[in-house]
């Protein structure tokens, strides 16, 4: 069951209204393990910003859309895998704000729920390329391209660039970093974590939970932060123990956790990012990673598919 606010938003055509950051409230939940360990657990519900352009995807897109409009581009071209939340949200933003979108998709030409929504509901042009060609295109340094006499603004994979990090730095305010001992978020391309680190001013312990395996996050996140600010930050880390095999991989343990968490707390999760984040946090709570009297804030970055 989805939150009542999200349900009410879906009942009206979501493309008729724009994302609203004021909907992203913070709620505190309870459970026996939290009481036993003397830990307080709160959730920033970023998924309530918009049913389709939600959470960190909206935070990453908003300043890029502003720049796109300022420079009078005809559309946005971006990159992602078949299950990409970024592809989903960018396609929805194109329909909501009435601009063209092109998605360069890694892998075979198949339509799943994500890509069907992007193409057939939102009108995104999908171009499927081999993994090698995808790597080459993704790593190119150009920021615009011309296709059919139209100029397209290029967004990188996951939407992560300097403007995206600026948007993600606004997820929390200064008081939040003093209030919570630990702030936890998902990590995909690293932009959300980099933005939160940048905003933290070295306050609180910030933990990113990776959904991908085999990534040198210390270098990647460090580079993103260094490129967006001249300050040094030593209050963050990335945990890669809860990837469940890699991007968009899952098993029955994760599925059961997601179902039980929604049933017990009314908070919907998905298996690509937020399910792994919340599973990891509660597994670490059981293992006494967090000291007693910790106040943990988890950033629910969205990624739900209410379609």
Explained architecture:
There is one protein chain. The protein has helices spanning 4-11, 32-37, 55-70, 85-97, 113-121, 131-138, 162-168, 174-179, 191-200, 217-228, 252-265, 274-286, and strands at 26-29, 40-45, 75-80, 100-106, 125-129, 144-147, 150-154, 182-187, 205-210, 236-239, 295-300. α4 (85-97) packs parallel to α5, α7 packs across α9 (191-200) and α9 packs across α10 (217-228). It is globular. α5 (113-121) links the parallel β4 and β5 (125-129). The longest helix is centred in the N-terminal third of the chain and has 16 residues, at 55-70. The protein has 2 domains: 4-54 and 162-300, Rossmann fold, CATH 3.40.50; 56-159, Rossmann fold (3-Layer(aba) Sandwich). It is built from 12 helices and 11 strands. It has 307 residues and is an alpha/beta fold.
Quick gist of this model?
The chain is an alpha/beta fold and 307 residues long. The chain is built from 12 helices and 11 strands. The strands form 2 sheets. The chain has a 6-stranded mixed β-sheet with strand order 1-2-11-8-9-10. It has a 5-stranded mixed β-sheet with strand order 5-4-3-7-6.
What are its keywords?
alpha/beta, Rossmann fold, 6-stranded mixed β-sheet, 5-stranded mixed β-sheet, 12 helices, globular
H-E order: HEHEHEHEHEHEEHHEHEHEHHE
- Which second-level CATH architecture of the largest domain applies? 3-Layer(aba) Sandwich
CATH class of the largest domain: Alpha Beta
- What would the average pLDDT be, to the nearest integer? 91
What's the layout of helices and strands?
Layout: H1 4-11, E1 26-29, H2 32-37, E2 40-45, H3 55-70, E3 75-80, H4 85-97, E4 100-106, H5 113-121, E5 125-129, H6 131-138, E6 144-147, E7 150-154, H7 162-168, H8 174-179, E8 182-187, H9 191-200, E9 205-210, H10 217-228, E10 236-239, H11 252-265, H12 274-286, E11 295-300
Parallel strand pairs: 2-11, 3-4, 3-7, 4-5, 8-9, 8-11, 9-10
Antiparallel strand pairs: 1-2, 6-7
């Amino acid at each position: 069951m989805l939150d009542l606010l999200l349900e009410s938003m879906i009942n009206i055509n979501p493309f008729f209204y724009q994302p609203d950051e004021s909907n992203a409230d913070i709620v505190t939940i309870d459970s026996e393990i939290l009481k036993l360990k003397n830990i307080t657990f709160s959730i920033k519900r970023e998924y309530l910003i918009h049913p389709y352009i939600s959470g960190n995807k909206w935070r990453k897109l908003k300043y890029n859309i502003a720049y796109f409009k300022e420079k009078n581009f005809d559309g946005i071209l971006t990159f992602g895998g078949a299950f990409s939340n970024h592809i989903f949200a960018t396609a929805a933003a194109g329909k909501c704000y009435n601009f063209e979108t092109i998605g360069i998709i890694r892998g075979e030409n198949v339509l799943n729920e994500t890509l069907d929504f992007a193409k057939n509901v939102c009108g995104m042009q999908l171009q499927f390329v081999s993994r090698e060609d995808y790597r080459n295109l993704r790593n190119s340094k150009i920021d615009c391209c011309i296709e059919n006499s139209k100029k397209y603004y290029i967004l990188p994979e996951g939407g992560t660039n300097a403007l995206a990090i600026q948007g993600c730095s606004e997820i929390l305010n200064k008081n939040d970093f003093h209030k919570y001992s630990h702030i936890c978020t998902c990590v995909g391309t690293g932009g959300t974590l980099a933005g939160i680190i940048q905003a933290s001013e070295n306050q609180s312990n910030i933990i990113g939970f990776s959904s991908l395996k085999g990534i040198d996050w210390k270098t990647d996140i460090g580079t993103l932060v260094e490129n967006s600010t001249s300050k040094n930050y030593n209050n963050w880390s990335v945990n890669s123990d809860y990837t469940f095999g890699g991007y968009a991989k899952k098993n029955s343990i994760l599925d059961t956790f997601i179902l039980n968490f929604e049933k017990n707390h009314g908070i919907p999760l998905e298996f690509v990012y937020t399910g792994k984040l919340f599973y990891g946090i509660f597994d670490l709570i059981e293992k006494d990673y967090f000291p007693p009297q910790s106040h943990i804030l988890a950033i629910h970055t969205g990624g739900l598919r209410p379609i």
